[in-house]
Design goal:
globular; mainly beta; 4-stranded mixed β-sheet
Length: 223
Amino acid sequence: MRYFKVTTMPTDTAFAFASDLPSGFRVPSYKLAEGEEVVDRDAYPPNAHVIMDGSFGRSLGGIIGNANSLLIVSRPIQEAIARVQPNGIQYLPLAIHNHKRRLASSDYYIVNPLGDLDCADLKASEIEYLDGDVVGVDSLVLSEAKLKQAPHLFRVHEDPTIYVISHVLLQAWIDLVPRPKNVYVDELRVVPGDGTRPGKSADALASNRSKAETKSGPVAKRS
């Protein structure tokens, strides 16, 4: 199985970008960014929305880039995720308002994969630690042994703001008609072994990475 890291901060300035958290959401943002379930007492607002950053465009893509490590997707992408992986994910409805604070679309969702997965090969990955805590994942390499029960969409244990999808889910996105725009993913290297020995390896920077991106609009894979 092949796996891909989803980019939550696309840089195509023609498309909408959100700099702020959803309006009216009072719960600490880590719940949305780190995979904790939003429950009734958190009072997620029924009119939650984000406002387009004025320095970006107004086009609405399959993914809304944002500065808060949220996975904000259009309804077709959300429905594709739900078909491929029906369990373990929370969907929070989100409206997109334009630069004039007028409704541009109410068909978006924050996708919140619950929990995270111990999936990194700690030998091959480039992970920064400080006093035993992870402070940065510079290069992520996946352990084949740790992926045996992996879902099609999951967060990475060392950094839950990293979203990983399987090739099966990516293909479901590619097959959407029309194909979603502003969707970028990077293929992750998968190595054999249990991936439990910490350290660094130059192999983690090998150039055999492929990219699936929307160069002219639709999702397209490039090797």
